[in-house]
Amino acid sequence: MNILLLSSLASAALAAGQTHKTDCQHLTAPNVPGATVLSINGTERWNYTVPALRPFLLSPVSGLNFCDVTVLLTHAGAKDQVTVKVWLPLQDWNGRFQANGGSAYAAGEFDLTLGPTVKAGYSSSSTDAGVGFNPETPSPWALKADGSVDFDALINFSYRSIHDMAVVGKELTAQFYGTKPKYSYWNGCSTGGRQGMVAAQRYPDLFDGISVGAPAINWAKYVLAEQWPQVIMQQEQTFPSSCELKFFSDTAIAECDGLDGVKDRIINDPEKCHYTPYQSVGQEVDCDGKKVTITKSAATVVANALQGPVDTSGRPLWYGLNAGAPLDSLVNTTAAVNGTLAGYPFFVNDEWIKYFVVRNPDYNTLEINATTFVDLFWKSYIDYDSTIGTDEADLSSFHQHGGKLLMWQGLSDQLIFPGGTVDYRTRVERLMGGRHKTNDFFRLFFAPGVDHCGFGSTIGAIPDDPFGALVNWVEHGKAPDSIPATVNDEAKAKRIVCAYPQRAEYIGGDVNSAASFRCA
Ligand SMILES: *[C@@H]1O[C@H](CO)[C@@H](O)[C@H](O)[C@H]1NC(C)=O
Ligand SMILES: *[C@@H]1O[C@H](CO)[C@@H](O)[C@H](O)[C@H]1NC(C)=O
Ligand SMILES: *[C@@H]1O[C@H](CO)[C@@H](O)[C@H](O)[C@H]1NC(C)=O
Ligand SMILES: *[C@@H]1O[C@H](CO)[C@@H](O)[C@H](O)[C@H]1NC(C)=O
Ligand SMILES: *[C@@H]1O[C@H](CO)[C@@H](O)[C@H](O)[C@H]1NC(C)=O
Ligand SMILES: *[C@@H]1O[C@H](CO)[C@@H](O)[C@H](O)[C@H]1NC(C)=O
Questions:
Q1: Which secondary structure element, helix H or strand E, spans residue 447, and what is its range?
Q2: Residue nearest atom 12 of ligand 4, based on CA coordinates
Q3: Dihedrals φ, ψ of 346, to 5°?
Q4: Residue 19 pLDDT
Q5: What's phi and psi for 85, nearest 5 deg?
Q6: Which residues form the signal peptide (predicted)?
Q7: Pocket of ligand 2 (CB under 6 A)
Q8: Which of 385, 409, 518, 418 shows the shortest CA–CA distance to 462?
Q9: How much is the pLDDT for 36?
Q10: What is the C-alpha to C-alpha distance for residues 319 and 290, in angstroms, rounded to an integer?
Q11: Please, are residues 98 and 88 in contact by the beta-carbon 8 Å criterion?
Q12: Three-state DSSP class for residue 47
C-alpha cells in the first residue's frame, strides 16, 4: 500500500471517528427479519478496561472508548430473550465490522473478544443466542420440563443466532457512523470456529472474510470421540497419571522431533512419526520420586487416544490425537482421598452425552463400554449432525459471493482432532473441483506442536496474525501461502506455517529465523 493511500485512509478513519452520525444514546432498534427488538440501550464508555482472563485473554485491554450497545431480541410467538452486544469505537473506527464467536457451550465471549476487536478499530458484536452465558454446561437450556431436548434452543445456539447477531451488528454500525462497514468479518476459535463455518455453510453472504481456528465442526462425531479414552480406561481398569501421560507425549516428541532436521521439541509432521506407545512398555518413569513402570494396559489406553474410536469389528469411527499432543485433557483422571485414580471425562463430551444423547443429567458416562459407545456415537450423529454437525462441504454459495475462508489449527490440539479437519477439507476439495479451486477461497494452515486455539500449553509455532492475513487476502487479493509464526518458548524463534497440504521445510541457516524455512 502506498503512503498516500495509507494517510488518506487514516484521515478518513479519524474523520469518521470524530463525527459519528448518531449519538450512542439515540440509536434506534435495528430491523432483524423474524425477530422483534425488545430494547436497545447505548452507553458511552471512556477509558474502559477488559481484565485479562487466561487462557482467552492473556493481558488486559485498556484505554477503550466505545459506544456499548445492548440489544434484547425475541422471536415471534416465543418467550425467548436473546442478548446481542455491539461495541462501536467512539474514535478511529477502521471502517470494518468483525463479529466474534464463543467457546464450548457459550455462543459468545462478550468482553473478552469485543475488547481486543474494538482496540483494533473494528465495530464488533457477540451474542448469547438466547441460552445465557455458561461455557461449561448446557444444563440450563438443553432439556425441556418434560425431559425432551429443546431443539429450538439447540438450533439457536448452533446456527440461528449467528445470523441475527451479524444483522444487528452491521445495522447498528451503519446507523452509528452513517455508512455501512466496507468489509465484514467473522473471527472465532473452537465453538467460535464452528460458528464461522456455520456462516460459510448457511449464511454465505454475511461475511467477506471468515477466520476460523480449531473449528468444532463434525461436532456430533468428534465430541463422542473425545469420550473414547475414558471408555478404554474403564475397560482396562487402568488410569495413567498425568506424569505417565507426559512421559508418553515427551517420548513421542523426542523420537520424532528431529525428523525434519531441526531439534526444537516440535513434531513437524505427525504423520511421519511412527512412535507407538507399546514401545514404552516396561520402561521406568520417575513420578514425584516414585518409580512407575509403564504397563501394557497404560500403552493400550494411550494408543487408543492416538488412534481414535473403533466399532466392535475394529473399523475406525473417528480420528485420534496426534503423537506429542497433551493427553491429560481426554485421558484425564482424578484422585480419590486414598490416592486411587479414577476416570474424569472432559466436560464437553460428558455434558453432551448426558444432556443430548442419553437425555439424563444423572447418567454416568464412565459406564459406557466399547459396545454401548458405538450405539451412542451413531445416536449422536443421527440425532444431531444436521443441527450442530456443521460439516456441510458445499461452500459454493460462499465462494460465489466472493467470500474468503482462512482456517488454522494446532497439530497438538488436545481436544479437537486435526484428522477431522483434514477430513472436512478433503470433502470440500472433492465437491468444489479440487485443491486448486478450493484454494481460491479456502486456505487451511496447520501449526506443528501448537495446542487448542494456540492457548500456549505446548511448544509450537503459533501463527502471529491469521486474521490479518485474511484481511489482506479479502482487501488486497493477496492469498496467503504462508503465515509468520512464533515458537512458544523462551527463544521466541520465528517460523512460518504453510497452506495445506504444504509444510514448512528447513532449508538451512539459523533455526530461529523464518527465512530458514520454505513451504514444500
Ligand atoms: C442502560 O445501560 C446502562 C449501563 O449499563 C444502565 O446503567 C442502564 O440502567 C440501562 N438502561 C436501561 C433502560 O436498561
Ligand atoms: C485510564 O484508566 C487508567 C486505569 O486503567 C488510569 O491509570 C488512567 O489514568 C486513565 N486515564 C484517563 C485519561 O482517565
Ligand atoms: C429459539 O428461536 C426461536 C425462533 O427463532 C424461538 O421460537 C425459540 O423460543 C428460541 N428458543 C430459545 C430457547 O431461545
Ligand atoms: C482433569 O481432572 C481434574 C480432576 O482431577 C480437573 O480438575 C481438571 O479440570 C481436568 N482437566 C480437564 C482439561 O478436563
Ligand atoms: C480408594 O477409594 C475409592 C473411591 O473412594 C475406592 O473405590 C477404592 O476401593 C479405594 N482403594 C483402596 C485401595 O482403598
Ligand atoms: C456394556 O454395557 C451394556 C449396558 O450396560 C451391557 O448390557 C453389556 O453387557 C456391556 N458389554 C460388555 C462387553 O461389557
A1: strand 442-447
A2: 329
A3: -65, 140
A4: 60
A5: -105, 135
A6: 1-15
A7: 47, 49, 62
A8: 409
A9: 94
A10: 34
A11: no
A12: strand
